[in-house]
Structure formats: structure tokens, C-alpha cells
Amino acid sequence: MTLAEFTQQMVKGQNVTTGRMTEPEEVAALIAFLLSDLAGNITGVNYVIDGGTTKAV
Fold first, then answer.
1. How far from 16 is each of 25, 43, 53, CA to CA, in Å?
2. pLDDT at residue 57, as a whole number
3. Which of 14, 40, 51, 52 has the most neighbouring CB atoms within 10 Å?
4. Which phi and psi angles does 18 have, rounded to 5°?
């Protein structure tokens, strides 16, 4: 089994809404935003970057 096949099985098994794994660049983009002046008034928030694995009600 290749890494790509394993990843696809994991995505299907976890019922990921977006149908793909989160890329490191997506996490880095949020971190860069939170470190910027644009996020200067954001406090005490949890950001979940999981492609919809954690469903919100």
C-alpha cells in the first residue's frame, strides 16, 4: 500500500468533509494571520483545522 492510498483510506475512515488531509501550508497560513497586526484583537479562541472531521452543531 502506498502512502497516497493509506492517506485516502484514513480520510474516508475519518469521514473528512473536505475529502482530503489538511496541508501544512494551511496551518501555517492561520499562524501567520494570528501573528499579524490584523489579528491584534483576537483572544481566547480555538481554531480547528481538520477538514470538517470535527462536526459543529
1. 18, 28, 5
2. 54
3. 51
4. -75, -15
